[in-house]
Design brief:
By secondary structure, this protein is α/β, with parallel strands linked by helices. The chain is built from ten helices and twelve strands.
């Protein structure tokens, strides 16, 4: 049994339309499927606005799907009572947000921030909670001297370590990291990534790692999900990326990443990203795809299989040999 499953999940937001009356629908997530096993890391990659953060919020229970099912250890998340969801699911899932500056209460001392989940769930005695806070600070590499400091007195990297410690306070089985290094200086990004890798291995965590940086996702993940305009366009084992990927959008993402091993010719995508309130018919990517034909507009491409755990939606897939087209 999988730790977490998403089955046909849709998220549609209603917004006020630009016209005088009525509303528009924003299709933030469309027919998302995901299966995550204990101890496995799944990376989610795509451009800004593609639905990565919405998917992360669905996974941790911050966003209720408009349609579809989310199951945790085989039990439907939104069929649980609120108290059962907090006890069985909430304490077993931690989340690290993109910007630690806004994710942490700037008025509270660090020890209190880390201790907060323990207080909310009434975990152990007050003395045991204090011991757990010290253990967590040591686990993420924070010195005891910052326990009484407030977030504004810490560096960006230290603040993100505080956020990670808070997410791990209750000993979760799953950690969701939504762009955890994008707000940090380049000099400390590698430190936070290495910390997450170390914690995953030491604690046996399952992880969902969300980023627009496809090379980082590849380093962190067992499997990679590529999203475009709210829809998953390809799911592949990390070992198959980029040599055996098939969707043109995945090829375009990798072409924008410099390589020291091979000469890379960047693929420039022409035209703006389509609106999520009025997505194109058929394949969402067809309006920017250099391989698009009338067939791509007729209907959504069927889900094709390229091997174990490797699926994609494209009627004109890329074909690679030896890592190059």
């Amino acid at each position: 049994m999988s730790l977490l499953e998403l089955d046909g999940v849709h998220v549609v937001h209603r917004i006020r339309a630009r016209r005088l009356f009525g509303h528009d629908n924003v299709y933030a997530l469309t027919d998302a499927h995901l299966s995550l096993d204990a101890g496995e890391t799944v990376g989610v990659v795509g451009e800004s606005g593609c639905g990565k953060s919405t998917l992360a919020k669905v996974i941790v229970g911050l966003q209720r799907p408009t349609q579809g099912t989310v199951r945790y250890e085989g039990e439907s998340l939104w069929e649980m009572t609120a108290s059962a969801r907090a006890e069985r699911f909430g304490r077993n899932v931690g989340m690290v947000f993109q910007d630690p500056t806004t994710a942490l209460n700037r008025r509270l001392p660090i020890a209190k921030i880390i201790r907060d989940p323990l207080d909310v769930h009434r975990e152990g005695t007050p003395e045991e909670r204090d011991d757990r806070v010290r253990e967590l600070m040591s686990l993420v590499g924070l010195p005891d001297s910052v326990a009484d400091a407030v977030p504004g007195q810490l560096s960006g990297g230290q603040r993100q370590r505080v956020a990670i410690a808070r997410a791990l306070a209750l000993g979760p089985k799953l950690l969701v990291a939504d762009e955890p290094t994008s707000a940090l200086d380049v000099s400390v990004r590698a430190q936070i990534l290495n910390l997450l890798i170390d914690l995953r291995e030491r604690l046996g965590l399952a992880m969902v790692f969300v980023s627009h940086d496809i090379q980082t996702v590849r380093k962190m993940s067992d499997r990679i999900i590529t999203m475009y305009l709210g829809r998953v366009v390809e799911e592949a084992p990390a070992a198959a990326v980029p040599a055996s990927t098939h969707h043109p959008y995945m090829r375009a993402l990798f072409s924008a990443t410099p390589s020291l091993r091979h000469a890379v010719q960047p693929i420039v995508l022409s035209g703006p990203v389509p609106s999520a309130t009025n997505p194109p018919s058929g394949c969402n990517f067809r309006t920017r795809c250099w391989k698009a034909t009338d067939e791509c507009a007729a209907e959504l491409p069927p889900l094709a299989t390229a091997g174990t755990g490797h699926t994609y939606r494209c009627v004109h897939p890329e074909q690679y040999q030896g890592g190059r087209k």
